[in-house]
Amino acid sequence: MVLRCSGDDSFGPVLDTGLASECYSFDFTLVFEESIFSIAPCTLVLILASIRLYEVRRRPVVVHWPLLRSIKLGTYAVQAALQLALLALWATDRGVATRTTIASAVLALLSTLGLQLLSDLEHRRTVHPSTLLQAFFLSTILLDIPRLRTQWLIDDSGVVVSIFTATFAVRLVLLSLESIRKWKSTTLTPEQVAPEMRQGFLGRTFFLWLIPLFREGYTRNLGMDDLLAIDDDLKGIAPYERLLKSWNAVDRAQKHSFTTAVFRTFLPELALAFMPKLAWMGFNLAQPYLVHSTITYITFHKTLPVEYGYGLVGAYGLCYIGIALTQRWWMHIALRTMTKLRSSLVTIIYKTMLTIRAESGNSSAALSLMSTDVDRVTNTTYFFVNVIPDLIQLVLALYILSTQLGATAVAPVVLVLICTGMSGYIGQLVPPRQRKWMAAIQKRVGITSNIMGSMKGVKVAGLSDKAEKQIEELRSYELEQSTQFRKLLIGSLLLSISSTVLMPAVTFTVFAIVQQVSGGSQFSVAQAFTSYSLINIIFGPIMSLTGAWTNVMSAQACLDRMQTFLLKEKRQDYRRVASRTAKTSPETGEPVATSDNSSEKVEISEEPWIKVRDGSFAWKPDASPIVQNVDIDIMPGELTLIVGPVASGKSTLLKALLGEAYMLSGSIEITIPAEIAYCDQEAWLLNQTVKENVLAFEKYEKGFYDEVIQACQLNEDLEHLPKGDDTLIGSKGVSLSGGQKQRVALARAVYNRKPIVILDDILKGLDADTYSKCFTAVLGPEGLLRRNRTAVILATHNIQLLPHAEHIIVLNEEGRIVEKGSFDQLSASEGGYVNGLGLKRSDIQQAAIVVAEEVEEEIIEKEAMITKLQSIKSQKGKSHDTGIDSSDVPSRGRRNADALIAYMKSLGRTNFLIFCIFGIANAGFSTAQPLWLNVWTSADQLHPVHGTGYYVGIFVMFGALNMIFMGLQFWTFMIFIVSHSAKLLHKKVLKAAMHAPMSYFVTADTGEIVNRFSQDMTLIDMSMPGSFVMTYTQALNGIAQVILTCVASAWLALSIPVLFLVLFFLQKFYLRTSRQIRLLDLEAKSPLYSHFISSFEGLAALRAYGWTKRAENESMARLDDSQRPYYLLFCIQRWLTLALDLIVAALAVLLVGLAIALKDRISPGLLGVGLTSVMGIGNVLSMLIQFWTQLETSLGAVTRIIQFEADTPREEDGPDMPRPEWPDKGAIKVTGMFAKYGDRTVLTDINLDIKPGEKVAVCGRSGSGKSTLIMLLLRLYSPESGSVVVDGVDTATLNLNALRESLVALPQDPMFLAGTVRYNLDPLGKVSDEEIFDALEKTGIRSVIEEKGGLDGDLDTDWLSAGQRQLFCLTRAMLRKSRVLLLDEATSSLDRQTEAFVDELIRTEFKEWTAIVVAHRLKTVAEFDKILVLQDGHVVEFDSPGRLLARRDSVFRMLWDLQES
């Protein structure tokens, strides 16, 4: 046996050879091994075990596995006995011992006994293997390997080494036992513990819990139900409560206070990530030493023991494995922090949204905070984790560099300071540019969303081309702002990169000059490549630190926007809840209810439930009151009607009763719990089923539910729907007709059984029969609400309902109450408003017929379309929305090859080719630098200082050209190519949407359409460009690094095919799952965002019903669902990074092993090239996969755009443009027209001949085809057969937009475009201001417009009441130059007086026009030229009103008599 060198009793750390060259010295000293490898870990584990024991002992027993417990305890006992034997041997001098041996043995024994106790508790009280025990045994096994080797090298009798070997073996057994999963023996359910939390230290370190997910993703398509659960710390409530606590603790008036709160909240996680990050930094800094030692060994290997070479191989393995594991841990902690941060930010934004004033913002701006800004903030987490460790690594690397190059090491510092200073200056300019860009995005998305949601109005008004042009102009402006932002970004990026790219050139140039001047020593190979490796190590921190400035500033700008939102004015409920004498529930405070025929009665007192005294209300605190000096008493069980002219303040008064307006004076007192059922004029519905909308957050009671459906006359409607009340109604209830929407909202109000119900003209637009039955069953004396003694407040234009109300409130134009009381009281009051109406009590049937007949055929039309909606959603496989198993959808995990090709085509061939050339040149000159450094150092060995200028000049030239081509590469892509591509892709989706037929918008989810313009465009504009450039760059760098690594030894090239084969199968296994999870991540965000938008739009209703807490819970559930794919996507990315790092470790070990084996034939310089290159391969591969992952996420957006363009049907457009003056007469001839919706014929053999200038009223019962006729005239739908000829031109041959521009139509729902008042009134820009003001004067809204800024002021429809909005649209129609006017229930939201005013305008202002009007009230069309009566899709009458009224058998006369009675 070889003798050991002296020094075992010293700390060492290595044996000292001294003068005895024949002794064995490649080993640590015994004192060092015992102190560092035994005493230190045992002491640490005893401390940690004590803390852990205190924590675990209070937990309940959750695991019952007595056999495993007994085996563990027995093994610990064996280990303790062996350690006791070792202690006895060393204590009796039966082995080689030092001054630390006894202490080491005692602590080892104590640690075993302590861990035995901890193991017993951990076994029974935790469901996962003990992290502390696994980490201790794994680390001590690794540390005991050199100790075991040392014992075998010591000349001993063999007893100690045998026992020591046995303890090592037992330790391996203990590690195996402590790694056994106990999950199957637990008493907990799978839902209580996430799969990750069931794993121990090793399982979590190597992501073993992800293997089932990878296996499932590789073999089949994944759905949301297949995703693994995540632990509670990553869900919404826990992180939010932490953030809220910090937010409440800061001074909110201070600038950046929300940023401070966020930082304080997650500081513990950031600090925890620092520890593995610092360890990673230590392993990283060890690489230059290994490079130096390896090159030195190869150079002088003949004078050094061969064991040094073997030691270098082991050191490389340890170093690179250490890098892999520590990077895995700090990045995983960071990603968990990101997930928590996202959860807390989304939650606090949503909860704040529920408290702000309903009119204080828009949903698109708030949604942008919740999506884009939150993502930007969370992605900055890595920079926060890196800042301090990067600074430390930078300082230490520079110090080590100074040991190689002396004072020259200051050169990189100077270069970095210059670049950082300039980058910092540019960074200050970034937030303002970014804010402009974000504002442009918000404006475009908001306007696009409004247009897509109002597409029927846009098409009817003939404004499709104008709307498309407006969106394109907004897109162009947005891209201009993004280009300005990108220019700064490129400048900042190039300055950041220049300090790294030019650093080798600057450093070695300065060093060469110093050496030349001072006459220093040779520039050795070891010195050169050690320095070069240090410079490579410096690259990362510098890139991170310089990039951190821009990213942190960007994140701070996002957090500041969130702070502005969080500090928006909150809604202050000024209503006072007073005590009352009625019996209430002791648990809920609500009225005591008793069952009576499936409804409920409430025992009440006869005191008012709402008292308003001298109340004045407005929508701004400093504005004039809209409703003033109001005194109201709302009594239980009474129907209160609020009537008045347009803009009299009826809706404002209702909102004031809900606490939504500003109370300028007076008081409101509520003597019941403040939960009120509320229905707005525009029904607020969720993108859920009919049943879910009716139930809302209440439990399902079949008996009462059926009674409510019957009362609201929804039975027949549900029979028409393919899935009955389980049919999805689409965004904003797009799949339902207007009347159906209102009745679903009314059913929700009835079903929820609140003591007060407030209805804002909820029954408008119902056909006579439905109106009558609905009013009787719900609001009549024996209706559900009145039977339950519910107080009902209804604002209405239907004055014939007045006799049926217990209380009437009449408002005038100034918002004052001019009359109030019962019908009998007001009828008897001479000269009063009600008295002047001359109304008499009549039954509900007669009163209801006066209401406008709803377009009931929409039910038939949409039946077929809803069926199509269900099939489309099934094909998409969105299990969250439809319940369809997404595993049925093919190709979810396939590559996005088509999308990548499509994106590359959008880049432009010439510019893209130039970009590729610049990238290749960039990679080529970067690769040339280390090769030239080898040439330089080799030449310097032969001829010191000779030709230094030549070698330095070439080296600097390569660096400069590298920088120049990199700048050209970035500039070409980000400035020229991105704008071209972004505009082209946006145009594709815009044209597809704008030219889709109306039937498509009936079936499509508006939210999904808007996502193409918002979420997908965000990916294409923000993520896609950077991801594409960096993927291409890193792919070229990866090829270059592999080539450089192989130059050291040709034998290494033999491993490259194996390497590529491993990488091929690795990425194939990984990407098939990652693609699916990325898609699921996007899909899971949609319900979250849709719920956010719906909640924002229904704020008043949510608060009125008292549902804000339930809405929060719903949002939290959707957030938790979206957190799963979000977190799992990060986890599988980290798994891939770990796998790549371990592959690089194997490559590094193989390279060094070959170098050691071939030390006589390998060049030290080329070995230096290979070793410095292998240092970067892991980072390059990791960045390549990271950017490819980001690119694939963005490519998903391109895929959706391609699919959207391909799948969206296109309207059948005609080839011809009409002559400029067409239609100049207004003659309309309809011949042999048949129309179908699905399989049902809705119009049969329609033949009409309408003379120029005739006024034609279209009448008929619901479902007779009235609106279908109007839609066919505008070609919103195509007929099965037949033709429409206007002034001699067949409309089927005309361009659709030109046709709709030429035929002026007013739909039931007013339509507005974003922009000025002038733009909305004259979007075609064809009339003068005088003409506009004249038209406004005639419609009576000129004063309103002038008060709000005139024609050049931005139009805010909140200025206008529902009636004024319709008058505004009528003004727009008056300004159009045409001879054909089409009105489809355009006066449904007008009171009788205003409707008469509109009818007079039609007769006078459109005197020479041909008008076709779907009749609202028959008396208003008595002077028309013709009456067209439809019945079951057939023309039954077409004659003058006089002739039809003169006929006893006339259908028109029957309808007339019924109304007039």
Automatic annotation (TrEMBL):
Alphabetical list of SMART domains matching this protein: AAA
Chain coiled-coil ranges: none
Entry's localization field: Cell membrane
Record-annotated ABC transporter domain positions: 610-839, 1228-1457
CC per GO annotation: plasma membrane
Domain named ABC transmembrane type-1: residues: 278-554, 913-1193
Keywords: ATP-binding, Cell membrane, Glycoprotein, Membrane, Nucleotide-binding, Transmembrane, Transmembrane helix, Transport
Record has Cell cycle as a keyword: no
Gene Ontology MF: a single term: ABC-type transporter activity
InterPro entries, per database record: AAA+_ATPase, ABC1_TM_dom, ABC1_TM_sf, ABC_transporter-like_ATP-bd, ABC_transporter-like_CS, ABC_transporter_C-like, ABCC_6TM_D1, ABCC_6TM_D2
Region of interest (Disordered), residue spans: 577-602, 871-891
Positions of transmembrane segments: 35-53, 73-91, 97-118, 130-148, 160-180, 308-330, 380-401, 407-426, 488-514, 534-552, 912-932, 952-978, 1042-1066, 1126-1158, 1165-1188
Function noted in UniProt: ABC-type transporter; part of the gene cluster that mediates the biosynthesis of the phomopsins, a group of hexapeptide mycotoxins which infects lupins and causes lupinosis disease in livestock.
Protein's name according to its UniProt entry: ABC transporter
The species this protein was found in: Cercophora scortea
